[in-house]
Amino acid sequence: MNEVFYTEPFSDHRRDQINLTTVGGSISYDLLKGNPCFHFPTAEARNEYLSRKFKEKGRE
Fold first, then answer.
1. Among residues 55, 33, 20, which one has the least CA distance to residue 7?
2. What does each C-alpha distance from 50 to 5, 6, 9, 46 come to in angstroms?
3. 39: which residues sit within 8 A by CB, 6+ positions away?
4. How far apart are CA 24 and CA 44, in angstroms?
5. Which residues pair with 9 in a beta bridge?
6. CA distances from 56 to 5, 33, 34, 52 (A)
7. Is 11 exposed, middle or buried (0-12, 13-18, 19+ CB in 10 A)?
8. CA–CA separation, 11 vs 30, rounded Å?
9. pLDDT averaged over consecutive 10-residue blocks of the chain (60 residues)?
10. Rounded to two decimals, what is the model's pTM?
11. Are 35 and 8 a contacting pair, CB within 8 Å?
């Protein structure tokens, strides 16, 4: 069975990294290219991260 990976592109913005850890994610590396990325344990964690990110963008 294939494992599903939930990722988003790496961001060096401090607030994005705080949101990442708040939802239980971590910084990982792309297996093919070796680039850093945000890795999430579940789809729900990824969706929560995206929700927090877009809410904060609306405040800017």
1. 20
2. 16, 12, 12, 6
3. 5, 6, 7, 25, 26, 27, 28
4. 10
5. 37
6. 25, 30, 29, 6
7. middle
8. 14
9. 84 96 95 92 97 79
10. 0.84
11. no
Element (H, E) at 14: helix 14-22
The two tokens of residue 7 are: 């990722």
Joined together, the tokens standing for residue 45 give 């964690």
In terms of C-beta distances under 8 Å and separation of at least 24 residues, what long-range contacts does 14-18 make, across chains too? 15/56, 16/53
